[in-house]
Amino acid sequence: MRILLTGGSGMVGRNFLDHPKVDLFEVFAPSSKELNLLDITAVKNWLAEYRPDLVIHAAGRVGGIQANVKDPAGFLLDNLDMGRNIVAAANQAGISKLINLGSSCMYPKSAENPLREHMILSGDLEPTNEGYALAKIAVSRLCEYYTQQSSRCSYKTLIPCNIYGRFDSFSSEKSHLLPAIIRKIDHAKSNGLTQVEIWGDGQAKREFMYAGDLADALVQAVMRFDQLPQNMNIGLGFDHSINAYYQAVAAVLDYKGEFVHDLNRPVGMARKLVAIDKQKSWGWQAKTDLSTGIRLSYEYYLEFEKSRPC
Ligand SMILES: NC(=O)c1ccc[n+]([C@@H]2O[C@H](COP(=O)([O-])OP(=O)(O)OC[C@H]3O[C@@H](n4cnc5c(N)ncnc54)[C@H](OP(=O)(O)O)[C@@H]3O)[C@@H](O)[C@H]2O)c1
């Protein structure tokens, strides 16, 4: 099985490449310099030369609330262009299998939790990441259209909940919630600070899966591709409040300070818990508990990220 993994240098991609069973496949993971997905000619030429059996599309322009709010046009265009280029070029090249990575941002902001795959496009999106979400929805629909239109190709979308773990971004500009919490609490602990600020009241709930578990789901998705539904959430089936994540990180890092809330900051959706009924029927579940995941992420942060300039 020859696999093209886009986004091989990103968090999802690097965890896939780090998975103990990845050697079962021949994986090509070109960087954006080697294969710029925004360049359709480069994508077509690459596929013609290497002829993979399956594509995992895990490249994207990904960022936290601040980055998304600052440049919604850029998030929409880059993710749309990358996605349409790889999916359309794969179809033209006759590649029969493709796994596209979606995001739980694709769900409407007022959709009832848990979020079920059929709810996509049933309401307004969360404004703080609308551009990103629109691109993700369009590319997942493109996968569906090709699958419906052609008997020779089957292009499916996995919709993971939030991910954290090794190879995460811990920079203040780009980081998601959990690495940001780890960085903030480690900073407070290292500098003897007695308070850590939480954006909003901390009661919004989030579902965070350890990235090694998503990698495992992807390995399984390659091995059991034919049984995969067209669109399928990958999640834990439970979530925690933002306050609870701060407390869990404080416990692992042994930080004894207090938390204060800045109620003027944006917090995003109140809750985003994906339904895992399809995932359960498909026969997969995540294995890493929160404390273990935070500990492994913190060890990675200390070894590779802490000394980097923000
Ligand atoms: N992280 C999460 O919590 C999460 C949750 C759900 C879904 N996802 C989805 O999973 C996918 C990967 O996320 P991630 O967290 O791994 O992102 P990431 O760490 O930011 O990595 C992004 C990847 O995309 C590549 N890339 C960016 N622009 C490119 C271009 N023009 N051409 C080719 N490659 C390009 C980057 O390559 P270079 O480094 O070589 O530039 C990098 O490998 C995204 O679709 C995201 O929506 C992520």
Question: Which parts are unreliable, with pLDDT below 50 for 5 consecutive residues or more?
Answer: none
How many separate domains?
2
The proportion of strand residues reads 15-25%
The CATH architecture name of the largest domain reads 3-Layer(aba) Sandwich
What does this structure look like?
- With 310 residues, the protein is of the alpha/beta class.
- The protein folds into 2 domains: 2-164 and 208-234, NAD(P)-binding Rossmann-like Domain (Rossmann fold); 177-205 and 239-271 and 290-305, Alpha-Beta Complex (UDP-galactose 4-epimerase, domain 1), CATH 3.90.25.
- 41% of the residues lie in helices and 16% in strands.
- The chain contains 10 helices and 13 strands.
- It has helices at residues 11-17, 40-50, 65-70, 72-92, 130-149, 177-190, 211-223, 242-253, 277-282, 290-305, and strands spanning 2-6, 26-28, 54-57, 97-101, 154-160, 162-164, 195-199, 205-206, 208-210, 231-234, 240-241, 258-262, 271-272.
- A 6-stranded parallel sheet has the order 2-1-3-4-5-10, sandwiched between helices. Strands 11-8-13 form a 3-stranded mixed sheet. Strands 6-9 form a two-stranded parallel sheet.
- Helix 6 (177-190) packs across helix 10 (290-305) and helix 8 packs across helix 10.
- It is globular and about 60 Å long.
- Bound molecules: NADP nicotinamide-adenine-dinucleotide phosphate.
- NADP nicotinamide-adenine-dinucleotide phosphate is lined by residues 6-13, 31-32, 35-38, 58-62, 82, 101, 103, 160, 162-163, 176.
- NADP nicotinamide-adenine-dinucleotide phosphate (NAP) binds next to helix 1 and strand 6.
